[in-house]
Please model this.
Amino acid sequence: MASPAPLIAPREGIGAALEKLLGDDLIEHVFAVGEDSITVRREAVAGVMVELRDKLDYQQLMEIAGVDYPDRAERFEVVYHLLSVTKNHRLRVRVCTDEATPVPSIVPVWPVAGWLEREVFDMYGVLFAGNPDLRRILTDYGFQGHPQRKDFPLTGYTELRYSEEDKRVVYEPVRLAQDFRNFDFLSPWEGADYVLPGDEKAGGTGEAPGKGAPSPMTAQEVKKADEKAEKDKAPPPPTPKTTESTTQTGAGAKTNLKAAKTSRDGAKATATAKAKTPATKAAEKAPAKPKAPAKPRAPRKPKAGGDA
Model:
């Protein structure tokens, strides 16, 4: 199936040209998604690169990548990406290898392959015979393992941190603050077959553990539960007695008649003036004293050295 928007222009007759040029060194040619990929023999990869550069005009080596297939006998694939500037075409070249068998280096063909092969060695552990400086390039000194392998643990083997006591970076075994958890996406409302965390306390001491959250009730069960709650509801308290006048004492008719009579103090009570102290009465009777005349103010003296 061709790509809806191919980024690589197709090259007419490339398949026949590859078969004629490489012969037995060509294992497989695949055209998929608008791209050409070939698999060649591992021992002949350096010579194949020379032929592709000089005869088919693939002038540039763009990238070298690694792929890990743990189930294969030769678990690693080394993938070379070539570009033809004059033909506007890209070609992918693959070789297979394992952990112990080295791949011939193509540094003599493209010197840029030196760093690219070091990256594949660092990430996957693939050896390259003839590389003048095959050592790690991305990981730190003393790093254990190869991070891009499928069997490499996600947490790694060691972790590093800056120590204030030693005033340097120290390496330590990995210590996880929290263990990996297995998440269960089954809703507890649907009824789990196991005891959820915390439900073991529901049964109490010496009893069976709790069964988790109950399943939701149906509409019929909800209706029955409401009717039962209405029946079991306690009757409302009686309405308290109230009186509309002071004559209604609530102690019977005779007591009400006595309460309706006016008391002696109430019959003679009249509105009296507000009580005043003797000092207040004497002050009100005394004539008002005339106000003393205000003393004239003395003129201000001018300040020394000021404006007149």
Summary: The two ends are 109 Å apart (CA to CA). Residues 204-212, 267-272 have pLDDT under 50 and may be disordered. The chain has seven helices and nine strands. Residues 219-231 form the longest helix (13 residues).
